[in-house]
Amino acid sequence: MPESGDRSIDLNSSAVPGAATRPGLRTGALTVALLLVSVIVLAVVDLDTAAVQGVHLSWWMVALLAVVAELMVFNIEFRHEVYSFTFSEIPLILGLFLASPRDLIIGRLVGELLFLALKERQPFRKISLNLASFLGECVVLLGVFRLLDQDRDANRPVTWLAALAAVSAAVLLGFIVVAAAVRWHGGLLKLRSILAIGALTAPVNTSLALVTVILLETNPWACLLLAGVAAFLLVSYRSYTALGQRFASLSLLYDFTRMVSGAQSPEVVLEAILAQAKDLLRSERAVIWLADEAGGFTELDVDDEGRRTRSLPHVTNDYVAQWFRGTSNAKVITRSTTDVGLRELAAALGTEDCIVAPITESSAIVGLIAVAHRLGEMNEFRAQEGPMFATLANHASVALENGRLIARLHEQARQREHESLHDALTGLPNRVMFADRLQASMLVLPFGDKLAVAVMDLNGFKEINDTLGHQAGDRVLVEVADRIRRAVDPSLLVARLGGDEFAVLFPSVRSRFDLEECGRTIGAALAVPMNVEGVRVNLAISIGFSVAPDDGRDAALLLQRADVAMYAAKTGVGDGVSFYDAASDTNTPRRLALSSDLHAAILNGEISMVYQPIVGMTDGRVIGAESLARWTHHVYGDVPPDEFIPLAERNGAILQLTEFALDEGLRQAAEWQSAGLDWGVSINLSMRNLLERDIVETVARLIHSTDLDPAMVTLEITESNVMSDASRTIDMLEQLADFGVQLAIDDFG
Questions:
Q1: Three-state SS at 715
Q2: 3-class DSSP state for residue 731?
Q3: In a designed cystine with 107, which of 63, 152, 519, 568 is the match (CB 3.0 to 4.6 A)?
Q4: What is the dihedral of CA 303, 307, 308, 309, to 10 degrees?
Q5: Residue 452 scores a pLDDT above 90
Q6: How many angstroms separate the CA atoms of 673 and 708, rounded?
Q7: How far apart are alpha carbons 269 and 272 in whole angstroms?
Q8: What three-state secondary structure class fits 492?
């Protein structure tokens, strides 16, 4: 009779208390029904009908044959599933022809009871259902056979067909009982595959039994020849099966090693380990216990129904390690194992037979792996399979450790990537990420749509840092970042570009009015006073907007122009919120080229001095001249002073330019004096000149080199320059006045 795994379903396997009530009642009712129907049928059957053949089998002989048949288990792999079959039909056929119905029934039930109770150690409910099923099979066998053939003559082909029909009917009843019990208890049974194998084994066993009956009737000694042939075939089959299983195991082990060596994610490793281990050891289920980050253990259980995960909060490392102290060998646990600790381990895994091995990481036990409920021969694992399972567990440990290492490396890589794209202080995206998002948004900007960038900078933040320290300044920046985030739509990208500079990306813009309103909202949010180090701090911010594609089609250019607009806002344009204006943008390629060429222009003679006469108000007589610088650029031609003088002040060339102007102006004044013209010279000084410590020495040195009277020299300074740093400039002006030069205030008032 073919079987799928265990002899029948485990009627005690309910995971939830009370959940087994309905299946238990159903199986109990089925047991009672089988018994009642069988007893009723047997009441009208003559149980003492003598055997027709010359050889008579007593009930104890039938019982012995039943036990032997159940012990002789063979495995058949059908459609990637392993099924077991026995010779249980042979005792039925032999008893049908060589024993009375009473001896057949008693012998079959006694033999199966001994096997189920002593070998399988099944519980009472399961034994009851199985014995009721076996009784029903005997009743069906006798009933169908007597209905089809009354003579029981083993030499007639018609009798052979009747015997086969009776055995098939009995086997079918057994299948129906098992299938019903399995379904009621939530299990899966591939009935079609089992019936396909039964269609093969039932005729074979029936034929073998009929041949035996015929030989016993004609020449009993000839049974020895049949037994010899059968023994040879059995040994050959077992050898072939063992060789096939070893080959399949090696193939599965190779596939397992290749698969886990390529797995990277720990989750993938775990599922792969269990699925392959289950197939490799031909078991119903595979289990892993693995330590988690919370200090407990997690169980992953895989069987034909799928995977299940549950937490094991009461399991600890010590609890797991106690079963593997001093060894990493696998433990093979069978129903006959008497070791109390191993029985406890099997019970913890919810099974009676299993192979268990430790999972290690860095030589420490971090869990265990187990396969449970052996499919196939004798329904239990063998000791020689322990080393192979230990090898599998070692591969699993290495694969799991590598998977966790790779996971940690991936996490570190993700963290580094996050850090490279985010500001460490505020957690906002940084300039790199903002520029990438801006460029990506511009690439997908629909024709006719607009996007905008806002660049903003705190006013007076340097004073906060200088006064309260950088830690206080950092807290201010964190608060500013939080206020900006809350002031704008959550879908907008807010970034910190560096220092006290922030930016917002508007991927879709309806009007400049909406942008200005958003800027005002941000300004109002930051205008709320902040308490820092016990000091009430009032913040203000300057915001500059640039809009694409009007102000640029490149991310870097759009950012640069928003920055220009922001600096315009700092000067008071737009009351703190300004839009980019190309007409007032002095940050052009021409300006950059002029700034770069200015130093060389002074040395190359591109800078020249012109003199504007100074006339007396009373008599109209020329009393002197103002020295004015002019630049004839080799590319751009004449460059006006109001363009290159600010550039010189910004890039530091003003010092070199001033010394050149002083030298040229003083030499020209000396020439006028030599020509008899009593003309003085007026030369402009910038703020940068007045802040130089050696300006007085420079003026004195150049005047002395021309033997010019200092009183003939007038130095002009604008009022705004004097008032920007009055204490230092006034000190320098007093030193110049003491030397004897004339001082004049330009743009006074």
A1: strand
A2: helix
A3: 63
A4: 120
A5: yes
A6: 8
A7: 5
A8: coil
Residue with tokens 């041949």: 211
Which of 227-266 are b and which e, b meaning 16 or more Cβ less than 10 Å from the residue's Cβ?
eeeeeeeeeeeeeebeeebeeebeebbeebbebbeebeeb
pTM: 0.46
User: What pLDDT score does 24 carry?
Assistant: 74
pLDDT tens readout for residues 60-84? 988 898 888 888 766 555 444 555 6
- Can you read off the two tokens belonging to residue 74? 């063979």
Alpha-carbon dihedral sign for residues 134, 136, 138, 141: negative
- Helix, strand or coil for residue 573? helix
Give the helix/strand (H/E) hosting 421: helix 386-421
Specify the DSSP class assigned to residue 740. Answer: T
Q: Mean pLDDT check: name the lowest of 324-333, 460-469, 535-544.
A: 324-333
Q: In what order do the strands lie in the sheet with 451-459?
A: 493-498, 501-506, 451-459, 540-548, 577-579
Instruction: Give the helix/strand (H/E) hosting 354.
Output: strand 354-361
Q: Which residue would you say has higher pLDDT here, 515 or 377? A: 515
Kindly tell me if the per-residue pLDDT of 483 is higher than 50: yes
Name which residue leads in pLDDT, 615 or 572: 615
Residue 316 is classified by DSSP as -
- Cα gap 80→212, rounded to integer Å: 34
Buried residues in 454-487 as b, exposed as e (16+ CB within 10 A): bbbbbbebeebbeebeeebbebbbbbbbebbbeb
Q: What's the residue count for the chain?
A: 749
**Cis, peptide link before residue 387, omega less than 30° from 0:** no
Q: Is 283 helix (H, G, I), strand (E, B) or coil?
A: strand
Say what the pLDDT of residue 17 is.
37
Which two structure tokens, joined as six digits, stand for 61?
């002989």
Predicted confidence band at 482 (pLDDT cuts at 50, 70, 90)? very high
Main-chain phi, psi angles of 12, to 5 degrees: -100, 5
Structure-block tokens of residue 173 = 């009843």
Show the tokens assigned to 144: 């169908």
Residues pairing with 3 in the sheet: 84
Q: Under DSSP, is residue 620 helix (H, G, I), strand (E, B) or coil?
A: coil
What pLDDT shows up at residue 477?
92
CB contact at 8 A, 456 and 562: no
Strands 81-85 and 2-3: antiparallel
- Mean pLDDT of the 8-19 span: 40
Q: What is the pLDDT of residue 16?
A: 37
Which residues are CB-contacts of 75 (< 8 A; sequence separation ≥ 6)? 82, 83, 84, 241, 245, 376, 377
Distance CA 736, CA 695 (A): 9
Q: CA-CA distance, 562 to 547, in Å (whole number)?
A: 8
Mean pLDDT for all residues in the chain: 80
How far the first Cα of the chain sits from its last, in Å, is 118
Please give the full DSSP string across 140-179, using - where no structure is assigned: HHHHHHHHH-SS--TTSHHHHHHHHHHHHHHHHHHHHHHH
Helix axes 470-487, 512-527, angle to 10 degrees: 140
Decide if pLDDT at 496 tops 90. Answer: yes
Quote the CA–CA distance of 215 and 211 in Å, as a whole number. Answer: 6
Q: How does pLDDT run across 224-263, given as a tens digit for each residue? A: 777 777 777 777 766 766 666 566 556 656 666 665 555 5
Q: Give the per-residue SS3 of 356-400.
A: EEEEEECCEEEEEEEEEEECCHHHCCCHHHHHHHHHHHHHHHHHH
Distance in angstroms (rounded) separating the CA atoms of residues 60 and 58: 5
- pLDDT tens per residue across span 590-644: 777 888 888 888 888 889 999 999 888 888 888 888 999 999 888 888 888 888 8
Concatenating the DSSP letter of every residue in 425-491 gives TT--B-HHHHHHHHHHHHHTPPTT--EEEEEEEEESHHHHHHHH-HHHHHHHHHHHHHHHHHHS-TT
